[in-house]
Structures are given as structure tokens and as C-alpha cells.
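mind reviewing this stuff:

——
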Amino acid sequence: MSISQRVAAHKYIYFGSVLLGIAFIGTGLQHLIYLHFVATLVPAYMPVPLLWAGLTGAAMILAGISFLLRRSNTLAALLLSLMMAGFIVMIHIPKLISAPHEINNWIRAMQDIAILGTAMMLTSIKTLNKAGGYLYALPIILLGAAHFMHPALITPKIASYLPATSVLDFIVGAAMVALAVCIIANRYARIAAFALGVMLLVFALLYSVPTLAANIKDGAEWTTFLLSVAVACGGFVAAGRVK
């Protein structure tokens, strides 16, 4: 890798980590603002759900600050990876087992797996970087395929004011699948990952900014926006990690 390529890769990772930091600070604040609702998502076998909900929100904020300040990035990324893996094992897998035909449960699981992959790519451990790239790209393929079914929680959502939204939905889904396959196959992977990150981020902004401008206190819309941004971050980080 040439010096210019190394500089570009560093910039991609830096931008992705800062963006992820902002997304997690926002998500952590939401955990604290809507603490009682978040507590209902804590598995029933865990005691004092309010405490776990609060600790999760605080951990997200601290991880986000670490990414923004570029302090203890590997430690923050490792701990964030463990937390995301915990969400998948304790929340998503039981939901998928109990309701395997509910597509939105699959989408939320894929979104969190993609974020887990992003966190793994942000560590300085090469083995985790490589595994994280696959864990990011594989869910993107499934999320892209889901665009052909138009589910409610899809990433990214297509703004209703855009022309031919149904057709655009198919195009975005197909592009997600194609770009993720390029990342996995390591064919034009850096260009594909960067294009994926840009596409996901642009559509997240197109969908959420008008809604948030109309109602800045819409907690559900903030959740959709922050989640979409967090998934988009992986494209930029992957662009910096692929060879």
C-alpha cells in the first residue's frame, strides 16, 4: 500500500469512527431519556432492568466519546463489540427463535451484527479486523435483499418525497447486495465499501432530516436515524481496512 493509500485509509477509518461516536452518544442519551422503555427490552431473567438499561446507555456514551476524542480506541471498540455481541445473544437470538417468520426481528438482528462488525474493524487487532469486515458485509447483503420486501424497519429507508420510491427501493437494495459482495470477494473492495458508506449515509439523511426538522422531539425517528448512521459507518471503516 502506497503512502497516499495509507493516508486515505486512515481518513476513512477516522471519519467512520467519528461518525460512529456521534451515533452512539446520541443512542446512549436516548437510553437515558427513555430509560423505563429501554428497561422493558432487558431480558426478564436479569435483575434490576433499570440499572442495566442505564449502564448500557452510559457505556454507549463513553464509547462514543472515546471514538470522538481518539482515546483508547481499541479498548472502546473491544468493549463495544462485546456489548453488541451480548445484544445479539441475549435479545435478538431469543426473538428469532420465538418468532422466526417476523422479518423485522431479522432486520434488527442484521443491523446490530453489522454494527458489531464495524466495532471489530475499529480495533487494532488484524484478526478481528478481517472477521469484522465479513460480519459487516454479510448482514448488508441480507438487508439489501430485504429491500425487495419493503419491511418497516429497513436500512436505509427511502424518503417518500423522492421519485419512483418503489423502483428506487429495488435499486438501493440491489446496490447494497452488489457492493457487499465486492467487499467479501475483495474485488474493488475499497471503492465498494466507500460507495456503500456514502449511499447509506445519504439516504439516512434524506429520510430523517425533514422529519426531525418538523419534530425534533420525535424519539422514534431519532432511533431510526442514529441506527442508520451507525450501519453506514461500517462502509467507511471497511474502506480503510481492506487491502
In short: The chain has a mean pLDDT of 94. The CA atoms of residues 39 and 48 lie 9 Å apart. Residues 3-33 form the longest helix (31 residues). The chain has nine helices and no strands.
